[in-house]
Amino acid sequence: MMLFKALNAFGEYCQFLWSTFGVPEKWREFFKRYTDEIHKLGIDSIPLILIVSVFIGALCTILIKLNINNPMLPRYAVGMTTREIILLEFSSSILCLILSGKIGSNIASEIGTMRVTEQIDALDIMGINSANFLAMPKILGLITILPVLVVICMFTSLLGGYGVCVITGIVDVDTYLYGIQTMFIEWYVWFALIKSLFFAFIISSISAYYGYHVKGGSVEVGKASTNAVVMSNIMILVVDVILTKLLLQ
What we know:
single chain; mainly alpha
């Protein structure tokens, strides 16, 4: 029974995507909504990203220093290890898990509210492809802005590690800076950016799907928002494993 429900939901999701991606009827309206979504989903998330990434970078530096007691390891290993953790996982995967709670619930609740208040039905009656009109600007907007947010997260996380070195002296500042430059692999940055594109599509499309197919009232909108966040997180983790295996062999 659960398998049947899962297959049915996947089929509805594919149909939803088929309806979503198409040529907009009014390009001017599409670009207006597209830029609005970039600002609402991305730019408004920057304060959260700055706060979280600064403290995570500082925490990574402290924990790595406290747990590396082997005298055989060079002193710059703290900075180098902090950099690798941030580039490979935190700046893309962990950040998107955090943002799915903010962005995913926002998308699902917004579209879900439009569904229960019959605004989507009104668009359909007017002959407008409601899935294309509502979901495509959100999906493309998040795909556009999320790599930028990932780059900001990389920089501020490393800056947080630098800040804790300056404030506490747990690691010499010059040693930390040398560590984050040592044996730097450029592909790790591209790896994080590639993952962010997939994660942006997952968060936006799944959240839009759950909001679009809400049935009921305000309680169901809340449930749809929760389900959207949970499913987005699960799919992010699954795709993270797959991409890591494919891109870092």
